[in-house]
Write a structure and sequence with these properties.
The chain is of the alpha/beta class and 350 residues long. Helices cover 30% and strands 17% of the residues.
């Protein structure tokens, strides 16, 4: 985990440091390697849309690993030091280890993580990913009881398959394993305390995520949001917690520590306490479009400049995209009177 001073030092050393219109630097690139997933979570890829007739991207339309690396190298020249691989479910993409090995060799990249539902994380796969250079994992788990979890993932997969994946990752020696729970009122909010109790003292950091209006298919409504304050108060009533300092400026989760020494939790407050002012993340879709906000309606397709073999053109296009950015959707969502379509989270990752 980086401290603020480490991040600032890296940025100051980057000769091509670029900032957007709100003076936010580019530090973190989320890379989606596929739009496919073996889950159909109701807040992300509901079956009503992502059914057997849904047309996923043909393999030929996905960026090759060689193309992804070209983009990462240019992003690193601007000060990006953190890469997170996402999907869909990134582990459905073949030979992911090869991409990780290449990323680990890029000058300036010192943090490589992956977001996964962990059901494909066998002992062998966890070890091969770690050996390739993957350092951290974010595992999605939205309840600790099978009935609720199956209702969320909507494909009948039980909790134990995720816990087995977490155990395999732990044995493989990952530097950090965080467990992410998206909380939706009326769906799984009754699981907040049981999840906290289960992961208390395990060494794994549980992070609660306020239900967000990502995409246009998850039927988001403000009344479905359980706020960070409500989550913290609920946990504090049984397992006393106290707030602690962020690891670095721009960290997305508010950190809380168990008073009894049982570790910490995080709460991601995108709805109730937006953190747009410190957002330094860009997202690369599996087809090569850059999105400068999780809630964006559209991205900028990099394939034309990527495939004309002009590295300078790619560098200039990335610089143009970031330097003209002024997104702050979470701070303005209540002021927007026109409902506009937003890119689905399964297309650009979380």
């Amino acid at each position: 985990m980086h401290t603020e001073s480490e991040s600032d030092t890296h940025l100051s050393e980057s000769p091509n440091k670029v900032v957007d219109k709100l003076h936010r630097p580019l530090r973190d690139l989320r890379v989606s390697v596929t739009d496919r997933c073996n889950f159909r979570c109701v807040y992300c890829m509901p079956k009503s849309v992502f059914n057997k007739d849904y047309q996923f991207l043909p393999r030929a339309e996905l960026l090759s690993y060689e193309e992804i690396i070209k983009i990462i190298k240019e992003a690193a020249s601007f000060g990006v030091s953190k890469i997170r691989l996402t999907g869909g479910e990134p582990l459905v993409r073949n030979d992911l280890e090869k991409l990780i090995e290449w990323i680990a060799q890029v000058d300036g990249i010192n943090d490589i993580s992956l977001t996964t539902n962990a059901t494909l994380l066998s002992t062998r796969r966890a070890r091969s990913l770690r050996d390739a250079g993957l350092q951290r994992l974010n595992v999605s788990l939205d309840a600790i009881d099978d009935e609720t979890f199956k209702r969320v993932n909507d494909v009948g997969i039980g909790v134990q398959s995720v816990l087995d994946g977490i155990e395999n990752a732990s044995l493989a020696g990952f530097e950090s394993i965080k467990v992410n729970m998206v909380v939706k009122k009326g769906l799984n909010d009754h699981s907040i305390l049981p999840m906290a109790q289960f992961f208390h003292g395990t060494g794994q950091i549980l992070r609660f995520i306020e239900f967000m209006d990502v995409g246009s298919t998850n039927a988001w409504d403000l009344s479905h949001v359980v706020t960070s304050r409500e989550i913290a108060d609920l946990i504090n009533g049984t397992l006393p917690i106290k707030p602690i300092e962020a690891n670095y400026r721009g960290e997305v989760a508010k950190r809380w520590q168990y008073v009894d020494g049982g570790g910490e939790i995080g709460i991601i407050t995108s709805v109730s306490e937006p953190f747009c002012g410190d957002c330094s993340r860009a997202r690369l879709s599996a087809t090569g479009s850059i999105y400068t906000c999780l809630f964006a309606s559209s991205g900028v397709d990099l394939r034309p400049v990527l495939r004309n073999q002009d590295t300078g053109a790619l560098n200039q296009e990335l610089k143009r995209i970031w330097s003209t950015r002024e997104d702050r959707y979470s701070e303005t969502r209540t002021q927007v009177s026109v409902i506009r379509p937003k890119v689905e989270m399964s297309f650009i990752g979380g």
